[in-house]
Design goal:
Strand content: 15-25%
Distance between the termini: 113 Å
Shape: elongated
Structural class: alpha/beta
Oligomer: single chain
Helix content: 25-40%
Length: 493
Amino acid sequence: MNIAAVFNALLVSVLAAVLWKYIKLREHVFMVEEELVLTRQSQELSQVQIDYHAALQALVEDGTRMVCTGRMHTDRICRFESLCYSTEAEEFVYFHSNSSVMLPNLGSRRFQPALLDLSSVEDHNTQYFNFVELPAAALKFMPKPVFVPDVALIANRFNPDNLMHVFHDDLLPIYYTMQQFSDLDLEARLFFMEGWSEGVHFDLYKLLSNKQPLLREQLKTLGRLLCFTKSYVGLSKITTWYQYGFVQPQGPKANILVSGNEIRQFTKFMTQKLNVSLEEGSSEEYIVVFSRTINRLILNEAELILALAQEFQMKTITVSLEEHSFSDIVRLISNASMLVSMHGAQLVMSLFLPRGATVVELFPYAINPEHYTPYKTLATLPGMDLQYIAWQNTDREDTVTYPDRPWDQGGIAHLDKAEQERIIKSTEVPRHLCCRNPEWLFRAYQDTKVNIPSLIHVIRQTVKSKPGPKKQKWSGSLYPGKDKMVVLLQRSI
């Protein structure tokens, strides 16, 4: 055998072995670099330390684990380990392995109509949550996951531009959902998946957690496949008191489970987070008039303020969402004796009123106060201890309408002439479903000249003396139960 050939073959073998080791080393370096990048992305999301290799191995071996509370999609909240989300497909992904858990295991019933509601608004088809199922082996063919180490609460905001929806549908349900699970503390992170932008009230959502809430669009900057190490999906509906008329005309929920005591615990938390100091024992008493500056105006607002001040011998001030900070509005309302406002989302701020205060809701012409009662329902919840008064403009001459505005601002020019004339002549908006009834919008966006003697008369029927917060007196009372006597505390004012 030719020695040169043998030597050459040996050299080729050595070089091939070295090259193979180099390639494997490069692959290993590349994998380490990739893991470092993905770990760094996770660390940018949170300060919580994560072992990327261990987290990936756990995902591959254990898959996703899900355990839910509730019997129906309308009352279900689910706890997940290793729930993933594809930012490209905008779909949640459940990975199956031999160690996966799925309770309840609904099979095809999971799509009838959904696993759960992402919002506290019940059974709305834009708020359904579900996921696609894949074997854990499919991870080999998918983008490397970025792990979210924070405990996550995943939900939808219903309408973050409307203050009533912000408080009733989002903030209260989020707050009490977090109260239900001990690891949903102030270090948990909120993820909002409905697709809205931040909105004008986003700072209020930030109060519920020490960490910045993230929106669906922001997730795309974090990675193509996000995996939540631990997450809760869905919101408790136990604090909601009103339904908006999607199936039947709007009104109080049939089974209200929240009281004013829970509402006031929530407002105490919010005032503390806002650094609002409540001036307990302050001798100054005053009335707050909530001023609207864009639509549904009080045309004689200055005259109304003066009349209220004279009638009740109290300082009367105005606040508006456009001209006051939210903290200032909360501070002023929290110490007010009376809140006066046109019907509208800003009246949800009455939940900050002190016990014994009075809420006066003004309704435009042709809008029956008994048909639109979110704030009456709130004020009259047991434990809120507020006096509620509704006044309606009954004089067609004291209203200014805007038929030529766009339809979503109350315009009716797009309707045929006969329908326009019918709406203009109508003296009461009939009961209707949400949300685009043109007659309701036409009347809801009109401006009103308040008949002040009429309003003062209506208020005086309820408020006989000077309005204001009242000290609480508590007495023990005995109530017979089925098998025993139970001592309850009964509030008397």
